[in-house]
Amino acid sequence: MKRKVVKRLSIIGILFIIGYVGYLYRYEIMGSYRDKFGWDLPENPRPEGMSTIDWAEMNYSKQMKELAKEYDVPYSYLMALVILECGGDKPAGRRFEKHIKKKLEKVKMGTVNRLENVRASHLNNCDDGCLENLATSWGPFQLMGYKAVALDATVAQLRHEEKAAEIGVKWIAKEYGHFLRKKKFKDAFHYHNTGQRFPLSGRPKTHSPYYVSDGLRYMKEFDKREKNNRP
Questions:
Q1: For residue 217, how many other CB atoms are within 10 A of its CB?
Q2: Pairing with 225, which of 64, 96, 118, 162 sits 20 to 30 Å away (CA)?
Q3: How far is the C-alpha of 84 from the C-alpha of 206, rounded, in Å?
Q4: Cα separation of 8 and 14, whole Å?
């Protein structure tokens, strides 16, 4: 019995040490993952002790209020999405999706007819670096580069932090704004992450099972803050 207790305590101790060392060297570790997987981490990580919501407000509140008004989408939804997609960081960083690049390569070669609005004719002069940019998500909403085609935008614009935000909201309003106008926020969050509305089964297909529920929770908090700030 004593041996089992000692063994359990030893395992807990080892896990604690690993976790603590991981915390101390978290940015170095993430840096190695960035190099391996093509992640681009923010230059100015959130100050210690500041909540994610406060951080997102500090970086994006003014801009998102302007865009929400211009494109008639809920401010609280945009802010919640900013947290889900980039943690409120500014610059937002980028994520390269290798499987998307493979799909684009098939479109370019003609073995696949298209990827959403992207056809072979859009990729005639697209080299390997161009394909990587199209297969990378950009900006506070982590909009995939290839989605710029449907908006008559360019990847160069998506790489610009301020322009990426506006292009992202424009895409949201055009692609699934009908969910937002009907206040179907579960569908909206799920669509942004998967391209599909929230399943009738109740089991989300998002990369995180809490993506939608966290989004709704963030929305409530931003709505509450806006209500309290009204004169």
A1: 12
A2: 162
A3: 11
A4: 10
End-to-end CA distance of the chain: 65
| CB 231, CB 104: distance < 8 Å | no
Type of residue numbered 180: L
Backbone angles phi, psi at 208, to 5 degrees: -115, 135
The full set of domain ranges for the chain reads 1-37, 44-97+135-229
> Rounded to whole angstroms, how far apart are CA atoms 196 and 153?
23
Which of 74, 71, 142, 134 has its CA nearest to residue 104? 134
> Across-strand partners of 136?
96
Whole-angstrom distance, CA of residue 41 vs CA of residue 94: 7
CATH 1.10.530.10 fits domain 44-97+135-229: yes
Rounded to an integer, what distance in angstroms lies between the CA atom of residue 70 and that of residue 229? Answer: 21
Residue count of the chain: 231
Cis peptide bond N-terminal to 91, omega within 30: yes
Residue type, 115: L
Is residue 153 a contact partner of residue 143, using CB atoms and an 8 Å limit? Answer: no
- pTM score, two decimals? 0.78
pLDDT (tens, 9 = 90+) of the chain, 231 residues, equals 556 666 676 777 677 677 665 544 444 454 454 444 455 555 557 788 899 999 999 999 999 999 999 999 999 999 999 999 999 999 898 999 999 999 999 999 999 999 988 999 999 889 999 999 999 999 999 999 999 888 888 888 988 888 999 999 999 999 999 999 999 999 999 999 999 999 999 999 999 999 999 999 999 999 999 988 876
